[in-house]
Amino acid sequence: MDIEDRIARRQRTGDRRRLVLDEQQLSPVWHREEPIGRGPLIERLLDHFDPVFDGRAPPDGYLHGPGGAGKSAVATALADRLSASLSPPSDAVFTTTRGGSAPGVSFVYVDLRTADSAFEFSHAVLDALVAESVPRRGVGTDELHERLERRVRGAGPVVVVADHVGEPETVDVATVAERLDGVAGAFAWLAVGRADPDAVGVPDDAVVVDVEAYSRATLTDVLAARADAGLGQGALAHSAIRRLAEWAEGDAGVALSALLGAVEAASGDGDPVVDDADVEAGMAAVPWPCVPLGRVLALPENRVRTLACLVDLPPEERAPVGECAARIADRIDLTAATVERFLYELAETGVVERVRVDDSGGPGRPPSRVDPRFPTLAFRRLARRWNEDSSA
């Protein structure tokens, strides 16, 4: 945080008794424009992208590493900055060969959590390349391909950064490559994911860039910067930040989820301080291992609403599955059968877990309880904001 940021922070503090000044800074699904502690990784990726500075396509690549290691933060920041620096105007038409007035290189970031189907993928790429809005209705995937081909014909290379490959709800690297190969034009891709390259179909000629988890010291810096920008002065002790960084074992997503959960716990008593008990509550609300909140919030709307009701139920009311579904259905405009189907589907992808209740005491197969496998306190807070935005 530079001097101007520090002055601006004190100016917006206003009421010194406020706990949260900028909630976005505390969110595990939001990334800073300047990632903290990832300078060497940024340099390695810039080396990989070096051909774009001569107007040429880079080799295809795969950036992978453990969850919460800053992959998405770096990928989005680089795609945004390189797009602003190198991309041609979105409505430009190119007819010359490369030279002084030749087209530049376009960078497109695609989040596969929200653009996983062939249609949504092509729509996201085209929408990033043109100035006008790309319709979703009345057009098919083939027509989108044709429009995309017309857009890139005679233009410079297009680099597609495809984030979150290989998750239970998303496609693998091989599918991303296949979709881009199906469109005539000069495309290159950088896929981003957690899985081993062989597990997601990374071709042998692609460049693989590994990233390690944050060190404890770097993660402490990440949390301190977020807390300093997002919370009121003195709201969180530095010892609590160190505690979160040590506990999270290098996973920034887990650490930020616990931090936001601690803020949610502290908000209930009106005290503008996140104390040790709040921090413990925030950590206790994060299952280990856990599903990242970005993946949960990217689910279809009715499933997010179902999960929002689930986390509000006490554990004893989450069993058996059928009765749990009926309790959720009483709160939203879905049938119990639909909710039950959602819960079974979410269990298959690991978003929730069915836990056998051994002390049922009745005959027959013991019932199972539905437990969230994602940070519940942080999700509750983010889902509340998500619901407000959806209703607006």
Per-chain topology:
Blueprint: H1 3-13, H2 39-48, E1 61-64, H3 71-86, E2 106-111, H4 118-129, H5 141-152, E3 158-165, H6 173-181, E4 187-193, E5 207-210, H7 216-230, H8 238-248, H9 252-267, H10 276-284, H11 293-297, H12 301-312, H13 321-329, H14 336-348, E6 352-356, E7 368-372, H15 376-391
Helix pairs in contact: 4-5, 7-8, 8-9, 9-10, 9-15, 12-15, 13-14
Pfam families: AAA_16
InterPro entries: AAA_16, P-loop_NTPase, WH-like_DNA-bd_sf, WH_DNA-bd_sf
Protein name: Cdc6/Cdc18 family protein
Kindly report how far apart the N and C termini lie. 33 Å
Strand order of the largest sheet: 2-3-4-1-5
Order of helices and strands: HHEHEHHEHEEHHHHHHHHEEH
The count of helical stretches stands at: 15
Apparent shape: globular
- Determine the strand fraction and express it as a percent band: 5-15%
Q: Major sheet, described briefly? A: 5 strands, parallel
Instruction: Estimate the helix proportion, in percent.
Output: 40-55%
Mean pLDDT, to the nearest integer, reads 89
Radius of gyration: 23 Å
Structural class: alpha/beta
Q: Tally of extended strands?
A: 7
Which residue ranges are poorly predicted, with pLDDT under 50 across at least 5 consecutive positions? 91-102
